[in-house]
Amino acid sequence: MSAVGLKDRLSADIKAAMLARDSFVTDTLKGLKAAILNEEIQLNKRDVGLSDAEIETLFAREAKKRLEAAALYESGANKEMAQKERQEHKIILGYLPKQLDEKEIQTIIAEVIQSTSAKSIQDMGKVIGGVKAKTGTSADGAVVARLVKDALQ
User: Fold this and answer.
1) How many CB atoms lie within 10 A of CB 96?
2) How do residues 79-88 score in pLDDT, each as one tens digit?
3) Complete DSSP assignment for 96-136
4) pLDDT, tens digit, for every residue of 9-19?
5) Closest CA to 90 of 118, 67, 56
6) Sign (positive/negative) of CA torsion 118, 124, 126, 128?
7) Where are the alpha helices (DSSP H) in 76-101?
8) Phi then psi dihedrals of residue 131, to 5 deg
9) Predicted local distance difference test score (pLDDT) of residue 3
10) pLDDT score at 4
11) 18 SS3 class
12) CB under 8 Å, gap of 24 or more: what pairs does 81-90 form?
């Protein structure tokens, strides 16, 4: 990212949200900080901490959870909770790189298919791996899988 790591940026944003008395943003950001702590403990990296890449991956997972929860709340006719989850998702997206659109992902898929000489659906895993290596957290895995499947059929 920049000279300031994601964890430091998150801490500064928590402080700013607390000073602004914005409880929603404060709670959301504290939840992210707790997720980082849990991940550090789970990976036995509490002393060294997570890298920015690992934190981005964690935040991408958290953002996806918020969208899935919002969809579940909407299917259960709980619009208020769905809106809350979508607002949290929007906050988390501020810490992730810009998401690629489908056209950009398709271009990368074409490059990977050409470089790996993938010919059939059996090569799908190899292609998805290559695309994820190039895109990181800037492309949703489900979208990549769907587009790769379409390209190989």
Assistant:
1) 18
2) 899 999 999 9
3) SPPPPPHHHHHHHHHHHHHHHT--SGGGHHHHHHHHHHHHG
4) 999 999 999 99
5) 67
6) positive
7) 79-93
8) -65, -45
9) 43
10) 62
11) helix
12) 87/24, 87/28, 88/28, 88/31, 89/63
Contacts of 48 (CB under 8 A, 6+ apart): none
Task: Write out the H or E segment, with its range, that includes residue 44.
Answer: none
CA dihedral for 130, 131, 137, 141, sign (positive or negative): negative
Which segments in the chain show pLDDT lower than 70? 1-4
128 and 144 in contact (C-beta within 8 Å)?
Answer: yes
Give the Cα separation of 85 and 71 in Å (integer): 9
- Per DSSP, 3 falls in state S
Rounded Cα–Cα distance for residues 100 and 95 (Å): 15
